[in-house]
Design brief:
The structure holds 2 protein chains of 2 kinds.
Chain A: E1 3-8, E2 10-11, E3 14-15, H1 17-33, E4 36-42, H2 46-50, E5 59-63, H3 73-87, E6 91-95, H4 98-111, E7 114-119, E8 121-125, E9 128-135, E10 140-146, E11 151-155, E12 171-174, E13 187-193, E14 205-209, H5 220-229, E15 232-235, H6 237-241, E16 262-266, H7 272-278, E17 283-288, E18 301-304, H8 307-322
Helix pairs in contact in A: 3-4, 5-8
Chain B: E1 2-6, E2 9-11, E3 33-35, H1 37-53, E4 56-63, H2 68-77, E5 81-86, H3 93-107, E6 111-115, H4 126-134, E7 138-148, E8 151-158, E9 161-168, E10 171-175, H5 187-193, E11 198-201, E12 210-216, E13 225-227, H6 231-243
Parallel strand pairs in B: 1-4, 1-6, 4-5, 5-11, 6-10, 7-10
Antiparallel strand pairs in B: 2-3, 7-8, 8-9
Helix pairs in contact in B: 2-5, 3-4
The chains are: A alpha/beta, B alpha/beta.
The structure holds flavin-adenine dinucleotide and adenosine monophosphate.
Adenosine monophosphate binds next to α1, β4, α3, β6 and α4 of chain B.
């Protein structure tokens, strides 16, 4: 490994949290290999890119033309592949989410490069890049080696902790890829943000409800607890299938895979397909009236009781700390 | 309209994973294999398109001889014929994608459907790779799709919301739950599927890009502090959330 490239995502005056995690992971690899680390960002402000200094990034490319104002998998991946080719990067890190997955996949096909998705650990051993990734819905992990000159990994958000390692300066270098509007094969024509709602994928705390919540009219309990903790609202499939909550909230095998610092499961039994989406959370708190519910087996903390009593008490108790 | 659908063979999602003797793959003894659940959404969408515009639905699978069982279920759902790119043992996504793309170059599909992810290695790699190999547009993780002439409009999940994305045929689509309700084959369909052809193809051999070194069952030592619902016990848990987990 000589040159590492990290995909950065500006968000207003900062970068997305996962970008700092990627920078930290790259820095740790560079410490073992003395590789250099650069970023690549599409259309970020100087202020946003400068925040990367805090995590030790000293150099980034910036592709900023109106052409890139809106995302396209074909267009963005073509620009990134050109950068990798012309600057001879040999390890590229992407975030493991909708965009990152498709960019990494396309770039690997374009450059004939080895790619492993959704990694939860990276290491260098005897000069080889060794990664770990969950498979079979997290029921097992594989360790894998990437072959060839160019290697690509996408990293699961919230798993690599971003640690501070400030540097004085970051050099921002413009890159002008040889692409045009004709390379935009897909057009994003509309974006519907979950207004004011935090996505379970981005939240540090997720509070989820299951069938135990009895009906959508009681979901305010889940929402209040989530709001108090500054977290996002999630749901089990039973709740989504019943039409009580939108699919965007579903956690699990056919929903989203989350790994927040705290996951609170309220009235969720803990079916294997639900665990698939949340078992890599750092801490798990379960509330269930059935002491034998499987969710307790994976929980750090558990309260056996009726959630209609427990959640209000929990809220009251947490408020004491928040005050 | 030529429609190609990628079908992968995966262990039933409720399977308990036991690591095999080689230490790097699962013990397949007693494991039930099924069509990858997301691929049922992909196939259903392909079948509906055919019902609307006419054409041929071909499924493609990269996998072992044993894949024929799940291929038959895909044929029972209504695919016209199937292609099996036969290979035994481990192969990486690059190998699967390259070989699927090779077949697509001769079949020339107007649209290629995949599932969002294969629930064995949960890679989310193949659809984007195939699109890139073929120089086609791709829209992944699609939960709503309309096709009008050659215009394609898709709704898909992204972090923080949804996006509407437009493109034109030919293209690659990967299917998310919610796209449709896959049909259940009826008995006559299952019988008919027995006579539908499965074409076997020898894959282009490639140097493995990814090698599996080992597999393990993750052992996460959970604190497992389970209490009752008295005020005191709840206060104790909140104290732990504050002091231990440091989330409050
Ligand atoms: C292919 C496939 C994919 C799937 N994908 C997903 C997925 O992505 N996500 C997912 O979640 N599931 C998924 N499932 C479904 C999964 O198997 C379970 O059916 C589902 O997770 C159950 O949801 P639940 O825990 O809310 O409901 P239940 O299993 O019905 O559990 C309800 C729990 O609430 C408790 N309870 C009831 N009343 C109270 C009360 N007053 N106070 C406290 N506790 C109470 C009960 O003790 C029980 O444990 C999938 C299944 C399949 C086959
Ligand atoms: N071996 C395979 N044969 C055919 N299609 C596959 C294969 N592997 C993956 N796919 C397709 O690609 C989708 C995404 O899989 P993956 O990228 O492996 O997560 C699946 O839902 C399938 O439609």
């Amino acid at each position: 490994m000589k040159k590492i490239l990290v995909y950065l995502e500006p968000l207003e005056n900062k970068l997305k949290r996962v970008s700092y995690e990627l920078i930290t992971a790259a820095r740790q690899i560079s410490e073992k290999t003395s590789a250099t680390v650069s970023g690549i960002a599409f259309n970020g402000t100087k202020e946003a890119l400068e925040t990367a200094k805090e995590f030790g990034l000293q150099h980034t490319y910036l592709i900023d033309a109106p052409l890139f104002a809106s995302y396209s998998a074909s267009l963005f991946s073509k620009a990134i592949a050109e950068l990798i080719r012309s600057k001879e990067f040999d390890l590229i890190l992407f975030p493991a989410h909708t965009y990152g997955f498709e960019l990494a996949g396309r770039v690997s096909a374009n450059l004939d490069a080895a790619y492993v998705s959704d990694c939860i650990a990276l290491d260098i051993s005897n000069g080889d890049l060794i990664v770990k990734k969950p498979v079979y819905a997290g029921k097992s992990h594989i360790t894998a080696k990437l072959n060839g000159n160019i290697k690509i990994c996408s990293l699961r958000p919230n798993v690599f902790t971003a640690t501070s390692s400030p540097v004085a300066e970051i050099q921002i270098e413009k890159f002008e890829p040889n692409v045009s509007e004709a390379d935009r094969k897909e057009c994003v024509v509309n974006v519907m943000k979950n207004e004011g709602k935090l996505d379970v994928l981005e939240a540090d705390i997720v509070v989820s409800g299951g069938r135990g919540i009895k009906g959508p009219e009681y979901y305010h309990l889940i929402e209040s607890l989530a709001a108090l903790l500054g977290g996002a609202v999630g749901s089990s499939r039973a709740v989504v299938d019943a039409g009580w909550r939108p699919h965007s909230e579903q956690v699990g095998q056919t929903g989203k895979t989350v790994s927040p610092t705290l996951y609170v499961a309220c009235g969720i039994s803990g079916a294997i397909q639900h665990l698939a989406g949340m078992s890599s959370s750092k801490y798990i708190l379960a509330i269930n009236k059935d002491k034998d519910a499987p969710i307790f087996k994976v929980a750090d903390y558990g309260i056996v009781g009726d959630l209609f009593n427990v959640i209000p008490k929990l809220i009251e108790e947490i408020k004491k700390y928040k005050e | 309209m030529n429609i190609l659908v990628g079908i992968s063979r995966v262990p039933d999602t409720a399977t308990k994973i036991i690591i095999g003797a080689d230490g790097k793959s699962i013990d397949e003894k007693g494991v039930k294999f099924i069509i990858n659940p997301y691929d049922e959404f992909a196939l259903e969408e392909g079948l509906r398109l055919k019902e609307k515009y006419g054409g041929t639905v071909v499924t493609i699978t990269v996998g072992p001889e044993a894949s024929k069982e799940v291929i038959r279920s895909a044929l029972a759902m209504g695919a016209d014929r199937a292609v099996l790119i036969k290979t035994e043992g481990f192969f990486d996504s690059f190998f699967a994608a390259k070989n699927i793309a090779n077949y697509a170059k001769q079949f020339n599909p107007e649209i290629i459907f995949f599932g969002r992810q294969s629930v064995d290695f949960d890679s989310l790699m193949v659809p984007a790779m195939v699109a890139e190999f073929l120089g086609l547009p791709s829209i992944t993780i699609v939960s709503k799709l309309t096709i009008d002439g050659t215009k394609v409009v898709a709704e898909r999940d992204v972090v923080g919301g949804k996006e509407i994305v437009e493109t034109t045929l030919p293209c690659v689509i990967s299917a998310q739950k919610g796209l449709n309700e896959p049909r259940y084959p009826k008995l006559p369909d299952i019988l008919k599927a027995k006579n539908k052809p499965i074409e076997e193809i020898t894959p282009e051999q490639l140097e493995p890009k990814v090698e599996i070194l080992g597999m393990e069952i993750p052992l996460r030592a959970r604190k497992n502090k389970i209490v009752g619902d008295s005020d005191q016990e709840i206060a104790e848990i909140v104290k732990l959330l504050h002091e231990d987990a440091k989330v409050i």
